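C-alpha cells as discussed.
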C-alpha cells in the first residue's frame, strides 16, 4: 500500500524582507508523531500551512506522495487525506451536531459506521450536553474539542494540530490527549505544535524545533516542564 507523505525541500519562507525560516528537507508521513516547538512568532503555524498546501514557499518544493495532490492541494482539506486544524478553530454557523456531520467522507464509511464514529467522538470529546448549542456560542476550549472531534471522525491520514490544548483547562486537556492518543494508535501521522513542552509532548516520537530561522529535526523529545505536566499515562 502506498504511504501518504509530504516532503518539503530547500524551503525558504519570508514575508517581504523578513526571513521567517529556511531548511533543506523535512518529511511527514503516516505513523509520524512530531512535536513542533518554537517561540511565539517563530513560524509554527506557517510551517504547518506550508505542509498542508495552504501557502506556498518563496522557494523550494512541497511534494505530495500517496494521494492526488492537485485535487487535494486546496485550502479546505477536510475531505482530503491531510487536515490542518487551525489554532483558532474554524466552525460552521450551526449547532454542534451539524458541525460534526458536515462534509464527512460518506464513501469511506457506511451510514452505520459513520454514526458509531460520531457517537464515539461525542463521548470522547464530551460534547453530548452541547449537541444543540450553536458552535459560534462555544468557549475557546469547547471549539477546539469540537474541531478535533470532527477531524477524528473523518480519519485523515495526516493531521496537523496547531496548539490543540492552548485554551484548555486540565480536564479538557486530558480529553484531547486521549483523542490524540487514539489517532496515534490508528496510525494517523500527527504534527502537534506548542510553544512549550506539555502533556502532548510525551506522545511524540520526533522533534522539530524552529530556532534562529531554521527548522532543526531530531529524535530527542525534550522533557516536560514540571509545571505543565499532565497526570496522563500514554497507552505506549
Ligand atoms: N501572510 C503573512 N504576511 C506577513 N507576515 C506573516 C504572514 N503570516 C505570518 N506572518 C508572520 O510570520 C511570523 C510567524 O507567524 P506564525 O503564525 O507562523 O507563528 P507561530 O510560531 O505559529 O506563533 P504563535 O506561537 O504565536 O502561534 C509572525 O511574525 C507573523 O506575523
Ligand atoms: Mg501559531
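Sequence:
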Amino acid at each position: 500500500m502506498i504511504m501518504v507523505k509530504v516532503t518539503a525541500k530547500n524551503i525558504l519562507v519570508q514575508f517581504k524582507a523578513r526571513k521567517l525560516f529556511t531548511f533543506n528537507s523535512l518529511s511527514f508521513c503516516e505513523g509520524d508523531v512530531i512535536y513542533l516547538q518554537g517561540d511565539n512568532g517563530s513560524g509554527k503555524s506557517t510551517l504547518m500551512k506550508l505542509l498542508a498546501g495552504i501557502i506556498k514557499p518563496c522557494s523550494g518544493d512541497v511534494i505530495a506522495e500517496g494521494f492526488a495532490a492537485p485535487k487535494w492541494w486546496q485550502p479546505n482539506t477536510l475531505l482530503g487525506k491531510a487536515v490542518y486544524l487551525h489554532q483558532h478553530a474554524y466552525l460552521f454557523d450551526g449547532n454542534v451536531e451539524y458541525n460534526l456531520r458536515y462534509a464527512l467522507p460518506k464513501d469511506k464509511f457506511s451510514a452505520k459506521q459513520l454514526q458509531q464514529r460520531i457517537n464515539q467522538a461525542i463521548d470522547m470529546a464530551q460534547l453530548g450536553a452541547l449537541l444543540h448549542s450553536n458552535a459560534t456560542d462555544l468557549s475557546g476550549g469547547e471549539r477546539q474539542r469540537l474541531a478535533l472531534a470532527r477531524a477524528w471522525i473523518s480519519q485523515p491520514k495526516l493531521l496537523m494540530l496547531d496548539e490543540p490544548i492552548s485554551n484548555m483547562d486540565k480536564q479538557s486537556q486530558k480529553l484531547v490527549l486521549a483523542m490524540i492518543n487514539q489517532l496515534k494508535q490508528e496510525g494517523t501521522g500527527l504534527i502537534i505544535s506548542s510553544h512549550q513542552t506539555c502533556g502532548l509532548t510525551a506522545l511524540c516520537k520526533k522533534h522539530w524545533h524552529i530556532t534562529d530561522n531554521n527548522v532543526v529535526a531530531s529524535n530527542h523529545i525534550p522533557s516536560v516542564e514540571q509545571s505543565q505536566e499532565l497526570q496522563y499515562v500514554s497507552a505506549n
